[in-house]
Design a protein that fits this description.
heterodimer, A: about 180 residues, alpha+beta, 8 strands, B: about 170 residues, mainly alpha, 2 domains, two-stranded antiparallel sheet, 6 helices, 3 strands, about 70% helix, flat
């Protein structure tokens, strides 16, 4: 093979890997976990959240946390998925793809039809991010925390669901 | 739909990112509300003006000398190919010398720096902190964010990103 021929073959291989690589990565489904937690200044803290309490307190500033619901779903890429998080609010996810071990997705938090948050994020694979709704602990009388975890993994969705979890809502195509 | 809803959806309306029912709702409201109609027109005009400004800037760019300059470098790169072709014959000697030099430098570097660890500078600490955040298992990068009364926080320990909406139902329905 000539030098030019070898170069062309190498470039072709690199191009094919560029095209195929992300598709292979995206062929794995995306596991989404949405946990809704109510933060209040006083009262009992949910035993299941006791371990998380210091971190939640750092995030929200409140003293007590109660689990409102948890939903786990395996979602398809480039499909809009709606999670009912209570209080007339919903979390709308549009997973777009994997880049550098990060899950790219559009996340919208709606209250009825009103958009509270509309964002495009790149979350580390298997990582968790938090949406908080409510007043600061110094001035407010409670808040809602929505913990969003996304993992692109070939493993099966874990079957353990915390008690008090709400029934899973069916996927809705929104907007 | 009221004026507050339209204000929230204004960007999406002008960019036609809303769903058809939402587009219709905003258009219906704007047709009956002078203030919202004005806001829509103002934002549309602003975007139009920005687009025209950018187009003018691009039109004024002189690209006529770019390709000749690129073409002028092509003949100059051919002799380098010849030198690359000759490289395999020269590589064993030069490669060995360079590998030896690199080993010596590496050994000197590690043996000199090993006994004392320099105190990181404040900027180094900031860099390390950013690096830790980047490597944290919950790191999230926000490419785009819109909404009202929003604050983004990052928990220092785990690097968890928090998007906080300072909002209550009372705010929505005053």
């Amino acid at each position: 093979m000539t030098r030019e021929g070898f170069g062309a073959a190498l470039a072709g291989l690199a191009g094919a890997m560029l095209i195929i690589g992300p598709r292979v990565a995206n062929a794995q489904p995306l596991d989404i976990q949405v946990t809704t937690v109510r933060a209040v200044e006083s009262g009992p803290c949910d035993p299941q959240l006791e371990a998380l309490r210091p971190r939640l307190r750092h995030i929200a500033g409140y003293r007590a946390y109660q689990l409102v619901g948890e939903q786990q779903r395996r979602v398809a890429w480039r499909n809009t998925e709606a999670f009912d998080v209570g209080g007339g609010r919903s979390l709308i996810l549009l997973p777009k793809g994997m880049v550098d071990e990060r899950v790219m997705m559009q996340v919208r938090l709606l209250e009825g039809r009103k958009r509270l948050v509309d964002t495009n994020v790149r979350l580390v694979n298997g990582g968790t991010m938090v949406f908080g709704v409510g007043r600061d602990a110094r001035t407010g009388d409670g808040a809602i925390l929505i913990l969003l975890r996304a993992e692109n993994s070939p493993q099966n969705l874990p079957q353990t669901v915390l008690p008090h979890s709400r029934p899973q809502t069916t996927a809705q195509s929104s907007q | 739909m009221d004026c507050q809803d339209v204000e929230q959806l204004l960007d999406g309306f002008v960019d036609t990112e809303l769903s058809p029912p939402e587009l219709l709702d905003v258009a219906r409201h704007a047709a009956t509300c002078t203030a919202c109609d004005g806001a829509v027109r103002e934002l549309t005009d602003l975007r139009g003006a920005l687009t025209r400004l950018l187009e003018d800037e691009v039109r004024q760019l002189d690209l006529s000398r770019v390709w000749p300059a690129v073409a002028a470098t092509i003949p100059a790169s051919r002799p380098r190919r010849a030198s690359i072709a000759a490289l395999p014959r020269q590589l064993p000697v030069w490669g060995a010398v360079m590998a030896l030099a690199a080993s010596v430098l590496f050994w000197l570097g590690t043996s000199v720096q090993a006994p004392s660890t320099p105190k990181p500078s404040p900027s180094g600490e900031r860099l390390a902190s950013r690096s830790r955040a980047w490597q944290s298992p919950n790191h999230a990068e926000i490419d785009r964010l819109s909404g009202k009364d929003i604050a983004v926080r990052r928990e220092p320990k785990s690097g968890t990103t928090v998007i906080w909406v300072n909002h209550t139902v009372e705010d929505a329905n005053p």
